[in-house]
Design goal:
Number of strands: 0
Largest sheet: none
Order of helices and strands: HH
Helix content: over 70%
Structural class: mainly alpha
Radius of gyration: 15 Å
Strand content: under 5%
Number of helices: 2
């Protein structure tokens, strides 16, 4: 999932440089959503791993 976040960030940067404002905004929004999903899953995995012994 982190890989998809990085891909959408790169798409957003390229689209922003080329002047595609709508596409850059959409790619940035998707990248943000994927980043926060990744962050929540990462925190959950840390918590669950901490309780396993």
């Amino acid at each position: 999932m982190l890989r998809w976040t990085i891909i959408f960030i790169i798409i957003a940067l390229i689209a922003g440089i080329l002047g595609f404002g709508g596409l850059a905004g959409a790619a940035t929004g998707i990248a943000k959503i994927l980043f926060f999903i990744f962050l929540v899953l990462f925190i959950i995995s840390i918590i669950r791993g901490g309780f396993k012994k």
